[in-house]
Structure formats: C-alpha cells, structure tokens
C-alpha cells in the first residue's frame, strides 16, 4: 500500500530530525501496526500496548474533565514513551532516550502525528471501499443491460448513491457538566510592624 510507504518515510524523517529517538511506530487505535521503525522492539506488542494505554488515557482525561486526549507521555529509567494522536484512526508512538529534549520531542511528534493523520484519514475505510466496489459493479451491470442486440442503448435508471458509514473505534465520551470552582479568598495586604 502506498500510504504505508509514505508513513514509513515520515517515521524515518522524524528519527533523522530527532536523533535521540530510538524507535517510532504508527498504529491504528485498535492496536494494529501500520508502519514501524523500532529496532530491538517487537512492533506488534508495542502497538497492542499503545492501544491499551490509549484506552486508559482516554478514560482518565474524560474522568478528570480535561477534554479530548491529545498525547500521552511516560518516563522510565531509560527514556520516554510518547504517544500522539494521528488523525481519527491512528496513533504515533515514539521511543526516546532519557536525554531527549522533551519540548522538541513534543514539537516534532505533534507535527509528524498530524502528517500521518492526514495520510491515514485520506485512505478509504473498509466500508467505503466496499461501497465503491458495489457502485462500480452496479454501474457495469446497468451499462450491460442498457445495450440491446440492435446496438442501440437505452438510458439506465439512475442508481441512488450508496452511503458508507465509517465508525470510529474510539469510545464515545459524554460531556460532563462544568462544576463551578470556588473563588479564592484574598486578604488585603496589611503592612506588618515590628516593634524593636
């Protein structure tokens, strides 16, 4: 698939821009590997763990009332694991050394996640591919029926467009009502006097 090659190229460019990266993986939100550059790390296992961590992180941001999950950063003794949203159906997971500049990691990770998301969101989903194939078959059948033995053609009846439904695998979040926060009490500044 051409998109997988483009995603892999983006991962290679990302690792060239941030030399402290030790691995990069693009996966679906379901935990399936799309492309990887992860020497020494099992990509399927990392993709599955990314999906599990993503599910917990989405629930945590929802429970804490922090809105949509944008990224997840974990730090271990030997480095970082950072996961960024990459469109509506993919995530980007980066492995970095402990000495990485975290600001640069976030900057480059967010940019790469956006580019990978654009590539993945541009691809037709399985329902859309099936709908496109069904439309093509219906058109071919209509054309062959329209031809008669005399060589004349009869206008086929127009076919209604097939509507494809693509469902996100991300869990739906119900908005929580905003709770008012208490206003802090302030006291006027009063000068302190010291008696000597």
UniProtKB/TrEMBL annotation:
SUPFAM superfamilies assigned: Roadblock/LC7 domain
Stored InterPro entries: Roadblock/LAMTOR2_dom (IPR004942)
Region described as Disordered: spans on this chain: 141-196
Residue ranges of domain Roadblock/LAMTOR2 in the record: 8-96
Superkingdom in the source lineage: Bacteria
Name used for this protein in its record: Roadblock/LC7 domain-containing protein
Low complexity composition bias: residue spans: 186-196
Coiled coil: none
């Amino acid at each position: 698939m051409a998109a997988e090659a483009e995603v892999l190229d983006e991962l290679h460019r990302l690792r060239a821009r941030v030399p402290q990266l030790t691995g990069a993986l693009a996966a679906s939100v379901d935990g399936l590997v799309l492309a990887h550059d992860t020497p020494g790390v099992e990509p399927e296992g990392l993709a599955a763990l990314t999906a599990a961590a993503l599910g917990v992180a989405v629930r945590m941001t929802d429970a804490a009332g922090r809105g949509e999950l944008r990224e997840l950063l974990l730090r271990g003794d030997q480095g970082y694991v950072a996961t960024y949203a990459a469109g509506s159906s993919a995530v980007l997971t980066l492995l970095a050394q402990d000495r990485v500049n975290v600001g640069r990691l976030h900057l480059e990770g967010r940019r790469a996640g956006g580019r990978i998301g654009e590539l993945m969101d541009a691809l037709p989903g399985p329902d859309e591919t099936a709908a496109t194939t069904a439309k093509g078959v219906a058109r071919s059948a209509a054309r062959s029926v329209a031809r008669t033995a005399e060589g004349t053609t009869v206008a086929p009846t127009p076919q209604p467009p097939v509507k494809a439904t693509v469902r996100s695998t991300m869990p739906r979040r119900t908005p929580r009502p905003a709770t008012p926060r208490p206003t802090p009490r302030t006291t006027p500044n009063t000068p302190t006097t010291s008696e000597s």
